[in-house]
Design a protein that fits this description.
- This protein has one domain: Alpha/alpha barrel (Glycosyltransferase), CATH 1.50.10.10.
- It has a 3-stranded antiparallel β-sheet. Strands 1-2 form a two-stranded antiparallel ribbon. Strands 6-7 form a two-stranded antiparallel ribbon.
- Strand 3 and strand 4 form a beta hairpin.
- The chain has 14 helices and 9 strands.
- By secondary structure, the chain is mainly α.
- Bound molecules: 1-deoxynojirimycin (2 copies).
C-alpha cells in the first residue's frame, strides 16, 4: 500500500538527504515536549477557575467554575451547566487514573449541583423540573435573570453523566450508601428532566439555535442508558430511562446520508458543525464496535462527517492556507460563525483529534478496521490508494492506515501547539488569520478538552456505558415522554 504521494516523496528524499527525516523527528519531539508541559498547564488552568480556592475563581462557591477569565466581552464570570459538567467529566477521568487529589473538588461539584437544582430561575423551578434546563448561573449559585438563549436541555443530561461516573466509582469501592445518599438524588432529578423534556425545543450548545440539537439528543440518550444501569445497581427505579430507545430513534434524524446536520432548524446554515464531533467524543464507548446508530468515533458515519466538517474550515480560515485535505487544520464551531469575528476554537481543534484517538482505540480493541464506501473519502485523504474492505489488526494495511490516522490526529494537536503562546494559557479562540488568541483567556472548557484529548491519545478511556446493548430502537419514532418527580437533594457532608 502506498502512502499519499507527498509523504512518499518526502520519504524518498529522506533516503538521500537526512533532513526531512530529522525534521520529522524534531517535529515529533517538539510535540511530545509541548504535550508534557501543556498537560500541567491545562490541569492547573482548570483548577484555577474553580471555587473556593482557584486563583481566578472570583469567589465562586465551592465546586463552581467560571467559564473563563473574562469580565466583559465576553462576560464569562458565570457558571454554565454544560461547561462544568464536561470539565468535571474530564477531571473524573484524571481521578480514576490515579490523581486522588481531585476527589474533593468532584464532591464539591456534586454538592453545588444539588443546590443549583433548587434555584428558581427564568427557565422555571425544580417543582416541575423546568428550572433544570437553565444554562447559566451566577457563581454564588443564584439565578442569572437577564435575557439568554434558554432553556438548554443538554445540561441536566451531561451533569447526570458526570455524577454517574463518580457514582459508579463509589459503587466499585463498596460505598453504596454514599452513592445512594449523595449522588442518586441529584442524578434522579436530572434523569427525570431528560425523560420529561427531551422532546421539547431548546437552544443548542452554542446558545444560538432554538430547536433540536444533535449534541443535546445524544447526551440525553447516553444519560438515560447509563442512568438505567446506575439506578438498577442502587435498587432504584428509573421511569424516565424507558424513553431511551425513542431518543436513539430521533438521533437518526440528524444524519443526511453524507454528514450530520447538527441543528433543526438550520437557520440558514449548512448545519455542518463541530457539534457533531463533540457529540462523538462525548458518547464514545470504548467497548462499542463502530456503530453508526450511536455515531461512535470509529463509525463510518462519524468518519465521513469528520472529513466533511474539517474540509469546510480549510478555505474559511486564513491560517489554514496550504493545509490540504489529509493534513490537520484549525477548526472552529461552524464555517458561518461570526461570534468574536468567527475564529477557530481550541476545544474544536482538540475534539477533532480526540475523535480519531477514540477510533484508534476502538479498532485496536475489536481487532480490525473497516473501510466502507461511506468512510472511503476520509481514509483516501490519508492513504491515497486505500480500498474498501476489512483490515485485520495483523495486516500491513491495518498498520499503514492506523499510523496515518494517528499522525493525522497528532496534527491537530500540533496546530493547537502552533497557536499556543509560550505561557501555555488557552483562551476560547485563536484568530482566523493571525492565530493570535481571541476571546476569553483561560477558558475552562479549552483546558478540559486538552486533558481529555491527551488522555485518549495515551489510551486512557472512560468506562464503557454499554451503548451496544441498548442499540435497538423502534422503526417509527414516537415522541413519548414521562412525567417526572422532582425533589430537593441534600447531600450530607462527604
Ligand atoms: C453568541 C455566541 O455565539 C454564543 O456562543 C454565546 O454564548 C452568546 N452569543 C452569548 O455571548
Ligand atoms: C459560548 C459557547 O458557545 C457555549 O457553549 C459555552 O457554554 C459558553 N460560551 C461559556 O463558555
Amino acid at each position: 500500500m502506498l502512502l499519499k504521494p507527498l509523504v512518499a516523496l518526502n520519504m524518498l528524499a529522506g533516503a538521500v538527504v537526512a533532513s526531512p527525516d530529522s525534521t520529522l523527528h524534531a517535529k515529533k519531539a517538539r510535540l511530545e515536549a509541548y504535550i508534557q508541559n501543556e498537560k500541567t498547564v491545562a490541569l492547573q488552568g482548570v483548577l484555577n477557575n474553580f471555587g473556593p480556592n482557584g486563583s481566578l475563581c472570583r469567589g465562586a462557591a465551592p465546586g463552581v467554575a467560571i467559564a473563563g477569565n473574562s469580565e466583559t466581552n465576553p462576560p464569562y464570570i458565570y457558571t454554565w451547566t454544560r461547561d462544568t459538567a464536561l470539565t468535571v467529566m474530564s477531571l473524573i477521568g484524571e481521578f480514576l487514573e490515579g490523581n486522588s487529589s481531585l476527589e474533593q473538588l468532584i464532591q464539591q461539584y456534586i454538592t453545588a449541583s444539588a443546590k443549583m437544582q433548587t434555584v428558581t430561575n427564568p427557565s422555571g423551578s425544580l417543582s416541575d423540573g423546568a428550572g433544570l434546563g437553565e444554562p447559566k448561573y451566577n457563581i454564588n449559585i443564584t439565578a442569572f435573570n437577564d435575557p439568554w438563549g434558554r432553556p438548554q436541555r443538554d445540561g441536566p443530561a451531561l451533569r447526570a453523566s458526570a455524577l454517574i461516573a463518580y457514582g459508579n466509582h463509589l459503587l466499585a469501592q463498596g460505598q453504596q450508601a454514599k452513592a445512594l445518599d449523595n449522588v442518586w438524588p441529584v442524578v434522579s432529578n436530572d434523569l427525570a428532566y431528560v425523560g420529561e423534556y427531551w422532546n421539547g425545543t431548546g437552544f443548542d450548545l452554542w446558545e444560538e439555535v432554538n430547536g433540536s440539537s444533535f449534541f443535546t439528543t445524544a447526551a440525553q440518550y447516553k444519560a438515560l442508558v447509563e442512568g438505567e444501569s446506575f439506578a438498577t445497581a442502587l435498587g432504584k427505579p428509573c421511569d424516565a430511562c424507558t424513553v431511551a430507545p425513542e431518543i436513539l430513534c430521533h438521533l437518526q434524524d440528524y444524519w443526511n446520508g453524507t454528514a450530520v446536520i447538527s441543528n433543526y432548524p438550520t437557520n440558514g446554515r449548512s448545519g455542518v458543525d463541530i457539534n457533531s464531533v463533540i457529540t462523538s467524543i462525548t458518547i464514545f464507548d470504548p467497548a462499542a464496535t463502530c456503530d453508526d446508530a450511536t455515531f461512535q468515533p470509529c463509525s463510518a458515519r462519524a468518519l465521513a462527517n469528520h472529513k466533511v466538517l474539517i474540509d469546510g474550515f480549510r478555505s474559511t480560515y486564513g491560517v489554514n492556507k496550504g493545509r490540504e485535505p489529509g493534513e490537520a487544520a484549525a477548526v472552529g464551531r461552524y464555517t458561518e460563525d461570526i461570534f468574536m469575528g468567527g475564529n477557530p476554537w481550541y476545544l474544536a481543534t482538540l475534539a477533532s483529534a480526540e475523535q480519531l484517538y477514540d477510533a484508534l482505540y476502538q479498532w485496536d480493541r475489536q481487532g480490525s478496521l473497516s473501510v466502507t464506501e461511506l468512510s472511503l473519502p476520509f481514509f483516501r485523504d490519508l492513504v491515497a490508494n486505500v480500498k474498501t474492505g476489512v483490515y485485520p489488526k495483523s495486516t500491513r494495511g491495518y498498520k499503514t492506515i492506523t499510523d496515518a490516522v494517528r499522525s493525522y490526529a497528532d496534527g491537530f494537536i500540533s496546530v493547537v501547539r502552533e497557536y499556543t503562546p509560550t505561557h501555555g494559557g488557552l483562551s476560547e479562540e485563536y484568530h482566523r488569520d493571525t492565530g493570535v488568541q481571541v476571546s476569553a483567556p483561560d477558558l475552562t472548557w479549552s483546558y478540559a478538552s486538552f486533558l481529555t484529548a491527551i488522555a485518549r491519545r495515551n489510551g486512557s478511556v472512560p468506562p464503557s456505558w454499554s451503548s451496544s446493548v441498548a442499540l435497538t430502537f423502534p422503526q417509527k419514532c414516537n415522541p413519548t415522554t414521562v412525567k417526572g418527580a422532582y425533589a430537593t437533594a441534600t447531600p450530607s457532608p462527604w
